[in-house]
């Protein structure tokens, strides 16, 4: 047979990337990256109030650019032999759409309205609405949050929908339905964006929208009306059925086939969340935590359905049949901020550069900018280098990693971070070290919760930018977790995972496991806990928990 | 009569300054500053372990330089009509001396030994010894700490002596006695450095060495031996009697008269602590807190002896008859770090400048240094400017000002600072604002303690670098204390206070009050609390106390 190829499309927070993969051996043929144009300019966002919106044009431009550019880099035969495309995106990142499924910001009158755009996963404007959902859920006969860890987050679908329609009457009136980013792209590619017929992802529905077979779908109309009468009727205009990402959403529409330079015989897979397909790409296996480590983390674990039983894991981000790997129970947890905490500290240290050095007259404008950039760019690396030299426990500093709230265990976006044990000798590397330790403690708290709730953990497979680039951080995490950590080889685990699922959706392979075995890149490196550190970190972790308890309950 | 002049000599942490003052009207004729040579180079110190030592040569060089230089700036008649010199220094800053009263580091074999040098007030190496003193004091029939607020500090005389002799057998064997910095300089000037006869200051003895008339002097030999047999016999080689700073220590020795270009008819006053004479210079009056605001603070309050009664104020740094103003009960409290906390934060922000920008090849070495200096120098001013624009309560950040331990209320140098309420939007100015608020809360905690213990406070008179230079900080402190703050006019309140006391010691005036009335500079500005801020700060102060309680007792 001639070679076959699939394309994985991975929509991240700042950019989208494509990856063309040889389905037979996983060879990564070519790829391309597109940085969102509007997003890069900071449009439609307001960081101090945690409002983060993305314009659908960014997604559309990136879709065309990354596939066309990647195809330019490979022989024509490759394009001719692409058999499938699958897409992963951030989530929950929903948008209000009209009857045709067009995001409102692509319709007249809404072009510049942030409420008519995609509400990015990390948007925290809906804190109040999340609280209302939790309050109502506590009182209701059926606990609709029970498969989502028992606590609904402001980062998720219903909180966001409710917040937007309350805030923006125009969007409320014009919004026929709502669509997740990971559902909109496949719908677009297949040419069926009808909100009532487009195939909805099990990931998004199960983990973020309280969809579950046991509820016959989404939470009941009564529940939603009790939450707010403004939600009346919306349930009917959403969906009942959901699909795992081994299912085909349809074939590539002639329109998009032409745009992209592909045949209309290409299968488009049902979409999924980036972290989930990252776990697939990194060859997640049962009872291993697949940890995507970037600005935040997503900690995923799969267990065979037959072993999962009726067990409910409290305080995580949900447990959904087939959400990560079709046929397995997918459990998801995560830290609201990980690398973002290091970036926050870098921003603090950059302050004199950007606010004082930027105005100097000692050098010309161009040199000034270069000096600022050069210095900023080196901060994290130099901090890591110096922090690594600080002896464990030496600084006495203990920090709490809740600078972006806490996703798990027990979601609470209102929580904040802290740094204790400071003295006049606490320098930047010592504080940085404590922040790194705090993010590792946040990871440990998640692992502990899984174990407390009866889900064993056999190991950790790490992926994402931090896992690849920060040996110092990774060693701390291994020591704190007291568990070896394998780092997946693929530079683009999410896109690779999408390409794997595309091969299943297109029928090349019949199971995810088969695709992983053929296309996976294996392990690149492994971190082993250093025994003498393990014990010391346990003590610091006890302080971390004590501090957290005080901040959360008594402060 | 011809004009008369006195010289005030003020030994601070980094430098010593002289001030020649016209006793009739307080006119400041001239002065000079000397930055300690060895200290500037960081010799004999180890900041991470809080070891801070000063070489007596720094004091000697500064003594001669500042007086000679100041006299060069005034007509010859002024030098001829100098009638008195008084000295203030930091404290408790003791040194081990031989039988002649010579600091060991000025004797052969000890020249480079930090343990043979002055142990600077802020040296915290004796934390363990302070604990032992407190433990023993709790068990002893007489509580020797009761006039020092009930808690003995690692910053004080006995803790430091005990720490040094335990650590350094050579110094232990060679040390005949110990002398405070404020006692050594007048002793030197009068030519009598004999440890058994030189006049010891009431300030140092009463506030730092548990000396009290009710104890017939220093703590009993039995107590000291119970503390450590190594202390046996030392009490006898120290002192029984102490003197207030209106008393003459003697006349200027011919040797020093010649060195300085003064007559040997000049009266040398008994020495005192810098903060106390600063309070005198700033015209302290009964029931006003005289607050020296610099790297740390010293908060002083005087009450007429007849009104003081037998009342003991718990948790402060002592109450001593005549320690601040002869004839009044002098109460002392203070914050272990104030401006030092702002400087600490500046150092953190400077880190990329000094560790990354310093290595750039984009500009030459000279420009590099200039850029770093220019940027560093502007950090605090720019932070203040931006922090002032942040609305009160807006950031949600609450900090604890214990980065250098806590001096009062309830000394505990082992405590550490903290910053809570951090999120990814917490930028440098917001954190700085919280640090400023925390130092103000530390001030409030001291005022509250005085009032709780039955000492009323009618107002605050501020002096020191922060009071003069930081209107933003001063307004926050006024709002937090809910009390108007007057800022004393003199730029050199400590040196001026010394010059005032020299005029009393020399017999020009018969009381401190008289000298203050003639020589005082009055008030320069006043800060009034803004009512709407007062209430908001009260809420934040409640959080500060809650946080402090947790950090101190439950963490």
Automatic annotation (TrEMBL), chains A, B:
It catalyses: D-ribulose + ATP = D-ribulose 5-phosphate + ADP + H(+); L-ribulose + ATP = L-ribulose 5-phosphate + ADP + H(+). The keyword ATP-binding applies. Residues 291-506 form the Carbohydrate kinase FGGY C-terminal domain. GO terms for biological process: L-arabinose catabolic process to D-xylulose 5-phosphate. It holds the Pfam family FGGY_N. One of its GO terms (molecular function) is ATP binding. Residues 5-281 form the Carbohydrate kinase FGGY N-terminal domain. Pathway: Carbohydrate degradation; L-arabinose degradation via L-ribulose; D-xylulose 5-phosphate from L-arabinose (bacterial route): step 2/3. Gene3D superfamilies: 1.20.58.2240, 3.30.420.40. InterPro entries: ATPase_NBD (IPR043129), Carb_kinase_FGGY (IPR000577), FGGY_C (IPR018485), FGGY_N (IPR018484), Ribulokinase (IPR005929). Keywords: Arabinose catabolism, ATP-binding, Carbohydrate metabolism, Kinase, Nucleotide-binding, Transferase. One of its GO terms (cellular component) is cytoplasm. Its EC number is 2.7.1.16. Coiled coil: none annotated. HAMAP family: Ribulokinase. Belongs to the ribulokinase family. PANTHER family: FGGY CARBOHYDRATE KINASE DOMAIN-CONTAINING PROTEIN, RIBULOKINASE. This is Ribulokinase. The lineage of its organism: Bacteria, Pseudomonadati, Bacteroidota, Bacteroidia, Marinilabiliales. The gene is araB.
């Amino acid at each position: 047979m001639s070679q076959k190829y699939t394309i994985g499309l991975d929509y991240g927070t700042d950019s989208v990337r494509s990856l063309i993969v040889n389905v037979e051996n996983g060879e990564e043929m070519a790829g391309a990256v597109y940085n969102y144009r509007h997003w890069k300019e900071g449009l439609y966002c307001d960081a101090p109030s945690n409002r983060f919106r993305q314009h659908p044009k960014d997604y559309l431009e990136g879709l065309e650019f990354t596939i066309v550019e990647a195809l330019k880099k490979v022989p024509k035969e490759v394009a001719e032999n692409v058999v499938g495309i699958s897409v992963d995106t951030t989530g929950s990142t929903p948008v209000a759409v009209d009857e045709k499924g067009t995001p409102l910001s692509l319709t007249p009158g809404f072009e510049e309205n942030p409420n008519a755009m995609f509400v990015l996963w990390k948007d925290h404007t809906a804190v109040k609405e999340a609280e209302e959902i939790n309050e109502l859920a506590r009182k209701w006969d059926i606990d609709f949050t029970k498969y989502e860890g028992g606590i609904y987050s402001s980062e998720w679908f219903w909180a966001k929908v409710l917040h937007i329609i309350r805030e923006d009457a125009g969007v409320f009136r014009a919004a026929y339905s709502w669509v997740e980013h990971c559902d909109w792209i496949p719908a677009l590619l297949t040419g069926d964006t009808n909100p009532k017929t487009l195939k909805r992802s099990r990931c998004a529905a199960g983990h973020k929208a309280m969809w579950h077979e046991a509820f016959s779908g989404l939470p009941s109309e009564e529940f939603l009306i009790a939450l707010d009468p403004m939600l009346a009727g919306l349930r009917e205009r959403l969906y009942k059925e959901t699909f795992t990402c081994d299912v085909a959403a349809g074939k590539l529409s002639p329109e998009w086939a032409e745009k992209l330079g592909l045949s209309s015989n290409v299968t488009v897979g049902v979409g999924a969340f980036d972290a989930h397909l990252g776990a697939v790409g990194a060859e997640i296996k049962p009872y291993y935590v697949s940890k995507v480590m970037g600005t935040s983390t997503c900690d995923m674990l799969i267990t065979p359905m037959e072993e999962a039983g009726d067990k409910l894991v409290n305080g995580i981000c949900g447990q959904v049949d087939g959400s990560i790997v079709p046929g397995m129970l997918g459990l998801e947890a995560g830290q609201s901020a990980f690398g973002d905490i290091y970036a926050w500290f870098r921003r603090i240290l950059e302050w004199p550069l950007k606010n004082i050095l930027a105005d100097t007259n000692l050098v010309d404008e161009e040199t000034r900018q270069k000096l600022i950039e050069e210095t900023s760019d080196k901060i994290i690396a130099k901090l890591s280098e110096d922090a690594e030299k600080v002896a464990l426990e030496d600084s006495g500093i203990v920090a709490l990693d809740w600078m972006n709230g806490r996703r798990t265990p027990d979601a609470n976006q209102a929580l904040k971070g802290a740094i204790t044990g400071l003295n006049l000798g606490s320098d930047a590397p010592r504080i940085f070290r404590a922040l790194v330790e705090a993010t590792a403690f946040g990871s440990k708290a998640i692992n502990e919760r899984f174990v407390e709730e009866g889900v064993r953990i056999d190991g950790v497979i790490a992926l994402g930018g931090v896992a690849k680039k920060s040996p110092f951080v990774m060693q701390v995490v291994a020591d704190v977790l007291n568990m070896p950590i394998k780092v997946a080889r693929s530079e683009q685990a999410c896109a690779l995972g999408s390409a794997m699922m595309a091969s299943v959706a297109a029928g090349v392979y019949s199971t995810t496991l088969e695709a992983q075995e053929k296309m996976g890149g294996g392990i690149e490196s492994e971190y082993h806990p250093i025994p003498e550190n393990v014990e010391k970190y346990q003590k610091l972790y006890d302080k971390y928990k004590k501090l957290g308890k005080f901040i959360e309950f008594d402060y």
